[in-house]
Structure formats: C-alpha cells, structure tokens
Design goal:
mainly alpha, 8 helices
C-alpha cells in the first residue's frame, strides 16, 4: 500500500466547502428553473409536440427559463462535484465558464451603450414579432401584458402597432371581435373597478385619435423603457455590480482551490 503526505501544502477545507455551498445554491436554483420550465411546457402540450416552439413567430418565455436553468444546473453541478472531489478539470470548466459569462455580460453592456440605435431597432423588431404571436402562446401574452401594464405603454411605438396582430388588425378582411382594438393591458386603469375589464380595448381605435388617451395608453413601450432606464439607473447599476461581485467571488474561490490542489499534487510524496 502506498502512503503520501502533504509537504507544506494542503487543500483548504474553508475554500472547498465555501465553493460547494456557493454552487449548491445555483444547482438547486437550476433544478427549480428546469422544473418550472418543463411543467409549463407540459401544461401547454409542447412536450408532446416540440415543433410548436419553432412555429411561434415570437419567443416563448419558457425557452429563456429553460436556458437559464440548464446553464445554472450545469455550472452548479460542475462546481459542487469539482469542489467535493477536488477535480481540477471540473473546477477549471466552472471557472472558465463564469469568466466567459462575466466578459460576455460586460461586452453586451458596452455594445448596447455604444450602439443604442441598433439596439432600439432590434428591440422594435423583437417586440413586433411578439405582437404578431400575442394570441399564440399564453406565456408570451402574459409577458407582453405585464410589460405594458407596468410601463403604462401600448405597442412598440404606439397602439397602431397592434395592426400587426391578426385579431386586432383594422383591415376590412378581419372578422375578429377584437378588430381595431388593443389588449386590456393597454387600457388606462379605472380605480373604481375592482374587476379587470378584459374588453376595455374593444373598438377603441375606431374613435378619433385625439380621444385615445382617455381610455388607453398612447405611449410606445420603447419610449417608456427609454424613460425608465435613466430614472432607475442606480438600481440597474446596483444589480449589475451585485451579479458581477458574485461571479468574481466564485472565480476567486475556484482559482484558489485549483491552486491548492495543484500545490498538493506537486508536493506530495509516496
């Protein structure tokens, strides 16, 4: 039997189990995200027909939930097992992935600031594509409704954008009851109403344009978001800094543990 001892080097239990605790939280969060996403797809029948995702013109919010879940689950698993088993390959994978995500976030933030017009055009295209698919996916519908209610806006640049949707289109070929209307989330809320009137947007665009603001929001959501960002810049910056510090902390723990393991392997004797 071979024995070995550590020569002036040992793996720090503090860093080892701190990294494990750090990753178990993300691993469990990944499990929750995956569970919620798969449950949502099951409720919508997507699991029995995955082609429904590709047929949607807009984006299914569940896809984003599943993507986040897969990333968190994979990194959390690699970090947990790598820390417990002192596996350098898994730890380097975890560390490298966190570094890549960190610089990717940084690059996106810088490019979004430098190319604001391009970002605005892409967001308009994204919003308009989702308007087209508004009635095709319940999660997408709820997402757009939440966005419009929270920001008191309607459409990408205004209520006319809802002409892109077959149900709200004002053309003569449309026989929908919602023709020339807007979703209820575009309506100015009535404090006296305790129950949401989901038909408040019906026929509203048949009225004179000057009267629209009496019953619906006329500001586009792109303008609303552009106004929201400067008002909440400190909150956005605080969230970005907090996420960055968490990532840097994870990188520090992983690199420290890798250095300890490499030092032990270099100094042990048989």
């Amino acid at each position: 039997m071979h024995y070995y001892r550590y020569a002036n080097a040992e793996v720090s239990c503090w860093y080892k189990y701190l990294l494990f605790s750090y990753n178990i939280v993300f691993w469990l969060a990944g499990v929750v995200f995956l569970g919620v996403g798969l449950w949502a797809w099951s409720e919508k029948g997507v699991l029995s027909d995955l082609t429904r995702v590709t047929r949607l013109h807009g984006i299914d919010p569940v896809v984003l939930v599943l993507m986040v879940g897969v990333v968190m689950f994979t990194l959390g698993f690699a970090g947990c097992v790598g820390a417990l088993r002192e596996n350098i390959c898994l730890l380097k994978f975890f560390c490298g992935a966190i570094v890549f995500i960190f610089f990717l976030e940084l690059a996106v933030a810088v490019l979004a600031f430098l190319f604001q017009d391009w970002v605005r055009d892409r967001f308009r295209e994204f919003f308009e594509n989702n308007i087209i698919s508004y009635r095709d996916d319940i999660d997408l519908q709820n997402l757009i409704d939440s966005l419009q209610k929270a920001n008191q806006c309607c459409g990408a640049y205004g209520p006319e954008d809802w002409d892109l949707n077959a149900y709200f289109n004002c053309s003569g070929s449309s026989y929908s009851r919602e023709k020339c209307g807007v979703p209820f989330s575009c309506c100015v809320p009535d404090p006296a109403q305790k129950v949401i009137n989901t038909q408040c947007g019906y026929d509203v665009r048949t009225q004179l344009k000057s009267k629209w603001d009496e019953s619906i929001f006329t500001k586009g959501c792109i303008q609303a978001l552009e106004g929201w960002l400067p008002r909440n810049i400190y909150i956005v910056a605080g969230i970005f800094i907090a996420i960055s510090l968490l990532q840097i902390f994870g990188i520090f723990l992983a690199r420290t543990l890798i250095s300890d393991i490499e030092a032990v392997k270099a100094g042990h004797h048989f």
